[in-house]
Amino acid sequence: MGMAQQKQVKRVPPKWSLWFRGLDEWLLIFQKISGAILVLYLIGHTLVISTALGFGHPSQLTWNTIIGTIEGPAIYGHIHVGTVIEYLIALLAAVHGANGFRLILTQYFGVGLPKPERHTFPRAVPSTKKPGQAWLKYIAVIVIIIFLILATLVAFIW
Predict the structure, then answer these.
(1) What phi and psi, each to the nearest 5 degrees, are found at residue 67?
(2) Which of 30, 32, 98, 130 has the smallest CB count inside 10 Å?
């Protein structure tokens, strides 16, 4: 069989819609981005606090200077720019944690996934619909809303 007789295979570029089909894919992307942001914040936070503590030799002047600079100007009353940033980081950590818990339950334990169905020819591709996962998303949203309310009370009122 020569080169001329080989079957030509037409290459079709992949469509983005194959990967980004719904909320689950976007939540997975969010999980990775929020994890990277939290790691960068943790490194920066560790460096700032260790510098403010004088690398094990704390002094009141060093602490007040560095933490006062990081805290930033007051926005309203006792609320500073640093308070708002810490609030947003805590909210990001709560959403990241709730989504991570949902991912662990579905991907590692199969909680909320539909029962496998028998596939027969010609329908060899399984269905991508996962109706059983909706309750996990609702629980994640409820946890995030509760955290948002409590974090707002702690950061801005109490």
Answers:
(1) -70, -35
(2) 32
User: What is the block-wise mean pLDDT of the chain (158 residues), using blocks of 10 residues?
Assistant: 60 53 79 96 90 79 83 83 88 90 82 64 53 72 84 77
The Cα–Cα gap between 6 and 83 comes to 67
Are the CB atoms for 117 and 132 separated by under 8 Å? Answer: no
Q: Is the separation of the CB atoms in 119 and 58 below 8 Å? A: no
Residue 16: strand, helix, or coil? helix
Structure tokens at 35: 């994890």
**What local confidence, expressed as pLDDT, does residue 2 receive?**
54
Query: What is the model's pTM?
Result: 0.63
HEC string of 42-107 equals HHHHHHHHHHHCCCCCCCHHHHHHHHHHHHCCEEECCEEHHHHHHHHHHHHHHHHHHHHHHHHHHH
CB 135 within 8 A of CB 112: yes
